[in-house]
Design brief:
Layout lengths: L2 H19 L3 H12 L5 H6 L13 E10 L2 E10 L4 H14 L4 H5 L4 H12 L5 H11 L3 H6 L2
Antiparallel strand pairs: 1-2
Length: 152
């Protein structure tokens, strides 16, 4: 799948999940692109998991080796990641986690401002200190604000 094909597929899934959550769909696409390496990661290809969502409880899961940043140092760990039937299911689950997670209250409050939403989301979503900057760069470079305007 090319980057353009990934963006088109992800746009449809993000618009669907954002209609309910009201989170910026363009940021959802940018985050999925970053997390899944434009749909090329093993996790996205084998588990339809485009955000690195961890498995909890009895949710179907697969173990994958991943990188995390601990005190600014990159380390590799094995984690249990959720398995999804489709991209749409994964995007909806991501939005539910943001909607229900107490750590994401500032992101929820910022949902009308995509860049601020990304900054607030990044504070609790990832350990990469440049995570928000990377999401916003993809959002801008791919002109993903255009899909956010469709939902207003």
């Amino acid at each position: 799948m090319t980057r353009a094909e990934f963006v088109e597929k992800a746009k449809a899934a993000a618009i669907g999940s954002s209609r309910e959550s009201k989170f910026p769909a363009g940021i959802t696409v940018a985050q999925a692109a970053l997390e899944s390496n434009w749909g090329q990661s093993q996790l996205s290809r084998t588990a339809n998991n485009y955000f690195g969502l961890k498995a909890h409880g009895k949710h179907p899961a697969m173990e994958f080796r991943t990188q995390e940043f601990v005190n600014g140092v990159e380390v590799h760990v094995v984690q249990r990641f959720a398995v999804y039937e489709s991209m749409e299911e994964c995007f909806a689950c991501r939005d539910r986690q943001i909607e229900n997670g107490t750590a994401y209250s500032a992101a929820r409050e910022a949902k009308a401002d995509p860049e601020r939403f990304a900054i607030e989301l990044a504070k609790h979503w990832a350990t990469d200190p440049n995570y928000a900057t990377k999401i916003v760069r993809i959002y801008d470079e791919c002109e993903l604000s255009s899909i956010d305007h469709l939902l207003k």
